[in-house]
Specification:
Length: 120
């Protein structure tokens, strides 16, 4: 992954808050004001998507980030952005806002209760 691409993305994201980048699992995670909202893999940007925003990404021809786990494809809730969105900060901003809103909904969702197996 090139640092030039990460620098380019940082430039496009100027003005949306504090964006930090952390290496993770061979990719880079992007955090906006401390909230994980995007990832970068192989010089491609993927934004957080949920049931509220998925239709907009689908309609724009975007696709989910997929990785292989034990030869099984696993799709994450991070989707590519339309290529034209990377032309300018103005074009990318609506997509970044959708991703951040989805990330906030996830962060503020009530914790799921884990069921415990009864022993005996």
């Amino acid at each position: 992954m090139s640092n030039d691409y990460l620098d380019y993305l940082r430039d496009l994201m100027t003005g949306i808050g504090t964006v930090t980048v952390r290496r993770m699992f061979g990719c880079h995670g992007l955090y906006r004001d401390g909230v994980f909202f995007a990832l970068v893999d192989d010089d491609a940007l993927y934004l957080k998507v949920d049931e509220v925003s998925r239709a907009q990404f689908e309609a724009a021809g975007c696709a989910p980030f997929v990785y292989l786990k034990q030869k099984e494809p696993i799709a994450l809730s991070y989707w590519s952005v339309p290529e034209s969105a990377l032309d300018s900060a103005e074009d990318l901003r609506p997509w970044l806002d959708l991703a951040y809103a989805a990330a906030l909904r996830k962060a503020n969702a009530p914790a799921k209760k884990k069921t415990r197996r009864k022993q005996g």
